[in-house]
Amino acid sequence: MGQITRKGSLSKFENIRRRIRTYKTWYKIIFPFNRIFRGVQHMRLRNGKSAYVRSVRSMDVNIISDVLGGNEYDLEQLRLPPHATIVDLGGNIGTFAMEMHRLFPTADIISYEPYPANCEMFTMNAPYAMLVQKAASGKTGAVQLEDTSNYVGLRVVEKGGIKVEAESLDDILKDFEKVDLLKIDIEGSEYEVLNNASTGTLKKVDRILMETHDVPGFDDLEWAEQILTKHGFTVSWIDKLGIVYGERHATEVRAAPERAR
C-alpha cells in the first residue's frame, strides 16, 4: 500500500478552497449558492468521478471528497484478481463500492449497510453491488444504531437508537469459500466483529482493509495488529487516523503510526 498520509482539520477558508479544487459542481455546496439546490443532487468531481448526495449540506459531500476525490483508503495500490470477491462492511452511500467497481469492474461486490437513508443513496450510486440492509456485529441478532441526521459515524448504542438487524462475521461469510478483500468501516464495532469471528472464517479472507477505533484496555490501536497478526496477516498502516491493511503472505510491513493524544 502507499505512503502514510497526514490529515488535519481545515479552516473554513481552506475547506472552501478544497471544495472548489475537488468539485466541478462546487457552486452547489458553497454558501450562498447552496440554498438554491435542494434534495438529492448529482455531484461531479474534477477528476471525472461523480455521485449522488441526499443534500448538498449533508456529510455525503465530505465522504465523496475523501473516497472519490482523495483516495482515503489508498485503493489504487490494491492488487486483486480480476474476478475478486469483495465484502464491504459499512457501505454507507456506496462510494467504496463505486471505487472497487471502477478499479475491478468484474469483481463481485457485496455491501452491508444497515441505515435505511444510506441504503437509498447506495442503490443510486452503486446499483451493480449487492446490498444487504444489515449491520455487522459480534453476534447475529438485532442492534440499535444512533438515530441522527448526520448519517456518518453511526455507532451501536444501548438505547435510544433505531433497531436494525445484524449478523456476525461468521454468518456473513458462512457461504463464501474465499474472500479476496474484506473492508470494515463500522464506526467502533470493528474489534467486536473480528474478536468474535472464528479462525475458520478469517482463514477465508486474503486481505482486510479496516478503519480502526480505540478499544478500552489497549494502547492506541495495538488490538488491530494483535488480531490480524494472530490470524496470519501482515499488517501495514495507511494513515495516522487508524486505517490498517492486512494481507496474507505480504512482504511489506509498515509500523503503526504515532497518533495525537
Structural class: alpha/beta
Topology as H/E string? HEEHEHEHEEEEEHEHHEHEE
**Large-scale geometry:** globular
Number of strands: 13
Outline the biggest β-sheet.
7 strands, mixed
Number of domains: 2
- The number of helical elements comes to 8
Radius of gyration: 18 Å
CATH superfamily of the largest domain: Vaccinia Virus protein VP39
CATH architecture of the largest domain: 3-Layer(aba) Sandwich
Report the average pLDDT across residues.
87
Beta-strand content: 15-25%
Give the terminus-to-terminus CA distance: 26 Å
Task: Please give the order of strands in the largest beta sheet.
Answer: 5-4-3-10-11-13-12
For the record, the CATH class of the largest domain is Alpha Beta
According to CATH, the fold-level topology of the largest domain is Rossmann fold
Q: What is the helix content?
A: 10-25%
Contiguous low-pLDDT stretches (5 residues minimum) are 2-8
Task: Describe what this molecule looks like in 3D.
With 261 residues, this protein is an alpha/beta fold. It has two domains: 12-69, no CATH class; 75-248, Vaccinia Virus protein VP39 (Rossmann fold). 25% of the residues lie in helices and 22% in strands. It has eight helices and 13 strands. The chain has helices at residues 12-22, 60-69, 95-103, 116-125, 169-172, 190-195, 199-203, 222-230, and strands at 41-44, 50-53, 85-89, 108-112, 130-132, 135-136, 141-145, 156-157, 162-167, 181-184, 207-211, 233-239, 243-248. The strands form three sheets. The protein has a seven-stranded mixed β-sheet with strand order 5-4-3-10-11-13-12, sandwiched between helices. The protein has a four-stranded mixed β-sheet with strand order 6-9-7-8. Strands 1-2 form a two-stranded antiparallel ribbon. α2 (60-69) packs parallel to α3 (95-103). The protein is globular and about 55 Å long. Residues 2-8 have low confidence and may be disordered.
